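anyone else get weird line breaks when pasting these?? whatever heres mine. first is seq + tokens for prot A
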Amino acid sequence: MSKISWMPDGFSVLSAHLVVDNAVEAIEFYKKAFGATEIFRMPTPDGSLIMHCEMQVGDSRLMLCDDMPEQSSWRSPRSLGGTSVTVHLWTEDCDAAFQRAIEAGATERMPLFDAFWGDRLGKVTDPYGHEWAISTHIKDMTPAEIAVAALEMFSGEDWARKKIAVEPDALMPSTNPPTIPFKVPTGPAGVAPACVLQPDS
């Protein structure tokens, strides 16, 4: 008898499980928007809701189910009034993938841009309230290079690059990381500022 794997075939160690308020509709949306392939679905006994569905997106397994108010943990972003989670989708061509998601019915949340940490990405919100970051890696960077690029962008000065040239470990992770005087600005209600910082005056 073969040994049973501790993780089912097709899964990775971390897998997203989304709660939506119309799973049947959402399944079709994820097919159109992200090229997902349905593996199987499990409806409730009366057939009115989806208790569980598994879909394949690239090399990853996506799970979803219908919003069920009687189950406190099965609540959709719509019923909760928002989400604090972003599903990050890697793709070879984020521009094409972003446009495909918009055409399928997603709403642009953050336009595509070349980020200081070496990725090109943008964010959309799907019709069920879930946020997706669609990204393509375009430049390999070390943690120190990312730290310098971030501080230069936020400060508008090149002092970070000069500092790292003199103290190469100054911005690297350590047991006593330096305190960087930046604060997150207050944004509009329901908007979580992502990678938006401003220096203390």
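and prot B, same format (seq, then tokens)
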Amino acid sequence: MCRSPGGLTSETVFSDDFCSYPGVVHGGIVGTAVDDIMANLILLEIGRLTFTTTLRIRFIQPVETAAKYRIVGRITRHMPNSISAEADVLAEDGALSAMATGSYQPIRSAHARTLFGLTKDEHERLKSFLDTDGHARLSEEEHHG
């Protein structure tokens, strides 16, 4: 993944393991990829762990296996209880293959321990990414470490 101000980009090649039809990537796999980019961007830029509340994808052309794609995400709105983002799936030649929008709800500390079955130590390590004013951000080293 490559980070830019307000954005996150990842390059990928989907294997035949992810086909819905021969040579075509299943839409749910593409949905997972764009959702992951948007959620990771929110974590990196805003410092919040979130739940996906809506995810909409529009497929412009089939996403093919064994072809290189670039997935580009950006945050479009940040409110205290809702964060919105967009992501595009671009073919190697830059053609738009799919576009997505998502809404994300920040996870509250009070719910995280129960929902995730966290130990007290795990909860303490994640707490700064749960109930925060947005100043807890991962450094590049923490994200990739």
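btw re prot B: The two ends are 13 Å apart (CA to CA). DSSP finds four helices and eight strands in the chain.
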